[in-house]
Amino acid sequence: MPSPLRRQLPNSLTLLRLLLAAGFFAALNAYRYPHTNAVWANLSIAVFILAAITDSLDGYFARRWNVVSMFGRIMDPFCDKVLILGAFIYLAGPRFVVPEWVARGDFFTMATAVYPWMVVVIFARELLVTGIRGVVESLGVSFPAKWSGKAKMILQSVTIPIIIFLVVNCRPAQNPWAMWTCHLLVYATLLVTVWSGLPYVLGIRRILLQHKERDA
User: What is the DSSP letter of 72?
Assistant: First the structure.
């Protein structure tokens, strides 16, 4: 029988991630490109990294000590989505618009290279996968997270703090290499995010065909 500390630690780390996400948003909210409250933006990087670390630790401890709970199964992905999706919403927001690019009428106007349509795509992937898992589990079939989804989460968790660091400290408007690095990271993350949803789509198709054949 696991000790009370072992039973509660994974869930406590999950809730801590939600609090850290709030701190991350608060710090990032104070920033305006190019240099207004840059200290707060750099602080947000540290808070985000700490939150991402708790994501690895809570699942690790829950599996190692065999204390996986219904609370953790619900709150862990919820806190992940709040942190990651919230970060992309901020990165596509007005705080990161480059005024001189807008004044010139440039095609690219965001220092982060993140645009609202990209956030829509990322949201759509998450909604689709959540819906698929809900349908499959309602059929009484186990449908755990795929390795592609974990790879997507890792890449997103790496991309977000790097982009913030580059924007705040390297000024993409003045340094083309920083701008192209942001674009490369964002588009690679977007492609992996879309690709990571394919195993879920193929998985539910296979499961539904099996159920159809069994009921025939």
Answer: H
Counting Cα atoms < 13 Å in the Cβ hemisphere of 105 gives 0
Instruction: Report the predicted TM-score, pTM, of the whole model to 2 decimal places.
Output: 0.92
Angle between helices 70-91 and 147-170 (to 10 degrees): 40
Model confidence at 187, pLDDT cuts 50, 70, 90, reads: very high
pLDDT score of 143 more than 80: no
Q: Which amino acid is at 81?
A: K
pLDDT tens sequence across 43-83: 999 999 999 999 889 888 888 888 888 888 889 989 999 99
The whole-angstrom separation of Cα 108 and Cα 79 is: 31
Whether residue 34 is preceded by a cis peptide bond, meaning omega within 30 degrees of 0, is yes
Q: CA-CA distance, 216 to 214, in Å (whole number)?
A: 6
Q: Which fold has domain 4-215?
A: Four Helix Bundle (Hemerythrin (Met), subunit A) (1.20.120)
Where along the chain do its domains lie? 4-215
Report how far residue 133's alpha carbon sits from residue 114's, in angstroms, rounded to the nearest whole number.
Answer: 28
Query: How far is residue 122's CA from residue 209's CA, in Å, rounded to a whole number?
Result: 28
Q: Is the peptide bond before 161 cis (omega within 30 degrees of 0)?
A: no
